[in-house]
Amino acid sequence: MGDAQRMIAIGLVWGVTNSIMRRGALIWDQKLKSSSTKPHQPSKLHLRLLGCLKNWLNLLVTWQYSVPFLVNLSASAAFFAILSDSPISLAVPVTNATTFAATAVSAMALGEETRIGFALFGTLLIVLGVWICIM
To answer: SS3 of 44, please?
Structure first.
């Protein structure tokens, strides 16, 4: 697989996992709201820091978030490996554009409320831009 194909693959993985992580974060947020019994935050700094750490750890143990997060991080490692062989002026626009397009399409596929016409038109422009960068 050539560098451009790897860049597109990484962008696709990033985009799809972004949408799935958003859904996992919403699940975590619902759990957080349903388990909250105290309406106010503790006033002492160390208690607030422990509360934030507890919330962050609860997010990481929510598998709907953590599994796509690990896949996303793996794609990031692959991206840095590609940067060693490819010009950054090509790698960054191709992967970022592909990520934006894949995020829009996968969010629509997951049923998120979007303006479908604008999303598809933007995705078409992104695909055209990536094609111009590669050629």
So the answer is: coil
Instruction: Indicate the DSSP class of residue 85.
Output: T
**Which run of H or of E encompasses 37?**
none
110 vs 18, 87, 106, CA distance in Å?
Answer: 12, 34, 6
Provide mean pLDDT across the span 7-33: 92
Q: Identify the three-state secondary structure at position 62.
A: coil
Question: In which residue are the tokens 């062989």 written?
Answer: 85
Dist. CA 36–CA 69, nearest whole Å: 25
3 state DSSP class of 38? coil
What pLDDT, on a 0 to 100 scale, did the predictor assign at position 74? 96
Q: Cβ(25)–Cβ(106) under 8 Å?
A: no
